[in-house]
Amino acid sequence: MLGASIVVLASVVLGLGALVASDALRLESAPGPALADRATTTSTRTHHESRLCRSNLSPDDALRLWIAGDSLAGSLGPSLGERAAETGIVQPVYDSRVSSGLSSPEFFDWPEHATKEMTRLDPEVVVFIIGANDWKTPSSGSSDSASWQGEYRLRVEEVLRILEDGGDTRHVYWVGAPTMQDRRKDQGVQRVNTVAREVVGQHDRAEYVDAYELFSGAEGGFTPTLPGSSGKSVRVRAGDGVHFTVEGGDLLGDAVYARLERRCALAEHAVPDQAKTVIRTRGSDGPTGAPGSPGGASTNTTASTAPPPTAAPVPAPPPASAPEPGPDTTATTESPTMPPSGDVQEPSEP
Q1: For the chain, how far is it from start to end, CA to CA, in angstroms?
Q2: Which of 92, 115, 234, 269 is deepest in the core (most CB within 10 A)?
């Protein structure tokens, strides 16, 4: 009788051991690896982050970074570009198109343009800011209209797939529109941001950057000033209630750079004495803001005249809220890893 009990007990112990070993049964004090079908979104994202950037980044083989979008990219591009270029192992190119959006392809066709640039530049990281000029899209119906939401969702999906179409190594940071001073515009961008966030959230190789929250005041909504690095308030928005000041561009640029740094450990491998030059795409608008205005750049820089846009003629002039081009603090010289000079804006005279 005792012998039979021992046999039964031994069988139970062996059975439990097999369950624990196979991870079908997890003891509270035994943190083992999760089964594949139980992996969480967090663990999947962490694995993806660890393989985003190449381990052999160098000044001769720098990370290819493309920063593009509407006129707000005219602030984000130089700010993020200069910060990344200082590492010596990132080659930034930025492309700002005033008054563009996803809902007006007749004005500027982002799917067509992005397709060409993905082929030409083959960026490893894309930072795309859009939505500020799409605020009217929800006005075509009620705030919960399935028609405009469905159409805008398709537009976001189309562009996002084009931007991602570079194999498993390309990652996209989709930057939503910031707060707007005008109430109607602010409500509109909140709605298009919601759609964009939902679409981006369904893509493993894309990440939504919430510029609306970043530029919100203490009580939410638009604010022209925010605490700076010193703790004192600095003006981050231009007088039109839409665009960024230089400090605002730096605030957003730092936020995106922090995400890129976490994924790529740029500081660890940086070669500062071989800093890159930020390249502005031919036809792209320069940094936004005019000298002396809230969005203006320092007056000790030299202005750069951009050549005529290479895009198809636009059917209508930009809206009145479009900023005046300010001094271009980014050089336009060619990098060894960039396309031939025919594809990049030539240096201008001082």
Answers
A1: 101
A2: 92
Q: What are 65-123's pLDDT values in tens digits?
A: 999 999 999 999 999 999 999 999 999 999 999 999 999 999 999 999 999 999 999 99
pLDDT digits (tens, 9 = 90+) for 269-298: 999 999 999 999 999 987 764 333 333 333
For residue 119, give Cα distances in angstroms to 72, 122, 166, 304, 330. Answer: 24, 6, 9, 27, 24
Rounded to whole angstroms, how far apart are CA atoms 167 and 35?
27
Strand order in the sheet with 171-175: 206-209, 171-175, 125-129, 63-69, 90-96, 279-280
Q: How many CB atoms are closer than 10 A to CB 245?
A: 24
Spell out the domain ranges in the chain.
41-343
The model's pTM is 0.72
**CB within 8 A of 78, min separation 6: which ones?**
94, 249, 278, 287, 328, 329, 330
Q: Find the length of the chain.
A: 350
Strands 225-227 vs 233-235: parallel, antiparallel or unpaired: antiparallel
Local structure of residue 25 (DSSP, 8 states): S
Write the pLDDT tens digit of every residue in 212-263. 999 999 999 999 999 988 889 999 999 999 999 999 999 999 999 999 999 9
